[in-house]
Amino acid sequence: MRPGDGLLSHDLLPGEKGPQDECGVFGVWAPGEDIAKLAYYGLYALQHRGQESAGIATSDGHRILVYKDMGLVSQVFDERALASLRGHIAIGHCRYSTTGGSTWENAQPTLGGHEDGTVALAHNGNLINSAELREMVCAQADGGELTGELRRGNTTDTALVTALFTDSPDRTLEARALEVLPLLKGAFSFTFMDEHTLYAARDRHGIRPLVLGRLERGWVVASETAALDIVGASFIREVEPGEFIAIDEDGLRSSRFATAEPKGCVFEYVYLARPDTTINGRVVHEARVAMGRQLAAEHPVEADLVIPTPESGTPAAIGYAQGSGIPYGQGLVKNAYVGRTFIQPSQTIRQLGIRLKLNPLREVIRGKRLVVVDDSIVRGNTQRALVRMLREAGAAEVHVRISSPPVTWPCFYGIDFASRAELIATGLSVDEVCTSIGADSLGYISQDGMVEATGQPLERLCTACFTGAYPIPLPDSQQLGKGALELQLTFEGERPVPSRPPTVGHRAVQSTP
């Protein structure tokens, strides 16, 4: 998904590249269940967290099979594909790339290891010490050369972790993971597996969500509680920051690899998570409605109608209407069938911009003073086009209200925001942003108001994209960014050669030796 303009990332037209959400992970241990379909529906519930690629790995106790491809969950998998994925353990992943490009080689789950130890890994988050981890991988490899998925063209931090998990044949995956996890810096919520055991781990800050659920005959771990709901699992608890979980035929066991220092991403409450998800005991929808009410208190205006930017602005718009007493209405209709497409729009359609995705209800908004509520403004391009469209449809006034503070810093923990120079609020005051997007007035919620709506104390939240106060110290800027590993490999003359594994139909499959 794309924070900032109320539109799915796969709705974007060429030239509208915006900040993106991270990924969704899912894991299930359930003998006797159709685990592939459980993983499929779990990923379907998490599709909003990433729309570039999707994959599922399964184990029948003897081998691991990974099936993945570019596209949405519904595009990657069909009945034939799911029928080929048998066993009692599965992990799944839907991706938006925050480290490594959007290529098949970088799709997840990753697969690594050897005859004495195999792992499939799915990762939500972003590590900031990938350069250091790569040096460790090369130092421990024969001849210092890249191996496994790294050699085949994978340029993600996930592939580095996969290599480190399986570089010691004399130790179990569990033992090696407990050695490696404390060395990882940044945000990670992992689900991973060998032939017999499902594992989960969350970084010591708990920046990205990860929850544990119970099936009648098994266990589930997932990025959000909404994924538990869709597969019929009951919510047990969150995976704790710094916790490592293993699930096998002997049950569930938990250990700690780091002391918990909670810094959950506040943007999960603002936009990233599904509204029907619960984080730290707070239903996300309730938090967003509360943000809208607080926004109305902080930035009142005389108006006739409150409308959201579908769909991300809807809960906050409901809250604004409740708090202000101004009627709530639907002033914009979203085309529900605008999804990922490989057919590029013509130049004429491209120039129409958001009209392919949103259309005004002229009879509703004509002559009205509107309050338009959205979750954030990033570059401002979509808001500018939206304000123009509403005025052309007859709106008398357009007052924009945003349920988060100005975004002025990029994220290095799993959200692909624009660079700081591209963020409109970095260089302009609120009044100047208002002028730039053409609104009659503009109001952002305060940080205190946003935090209060989450129900969490400020010290347990990461607000770096609004404040620049990063909870995990950042390395040199050259070691950060989506393409950092590609650049390093190219510079050192070790650019890997992509080698796509065999396919079934047009789908891509990997399996253990």
Label this structure with key terms.
513 residues; alpha+beta; 9-stranded antiparallel β-sheet; 6-stranded antiparallel β-sheet
Q: Please, what is the average pLDDT? A: 87
Which regions are unreliable across 5 or more consecutive residues at pLDDT < 50?
1-19, 487-508
The largest pleated sheet is described as: 9 strands, antiparallel
Radius of gyration: 23 Å
- Count the beta strands: 25
Query: Structural class, from helix and strand content?
Result: alpha+beta
Strand fraction equals 15-25%
Percent of residues in helices comes to 25-40%
Strand order of the largest sheet: 11-9-10-1-4-2-3-25-24
Task: Give the overall form.
Answer: elongated
What's the number of helices?
Answer: 19
Brief sketch in words of this structure:
With 513 residues, the chain is α+β, with helices and mostly antiparallel strands.
Please, could you describe this protein's structure?
The radius of gyration is 23 Å and the shape is elongated. Strand 7 and strand 8 form a beta hairpin. A nine-stranded antiparallel β-sheet has the order 11-9-10-1-4-2-3-25-24. The chain is an alpha+beta fold. Helix 10 packs across helix 11 and helix 10 packs antiparallel against helix 17. The chain is about 30% helix and about 25% strand.
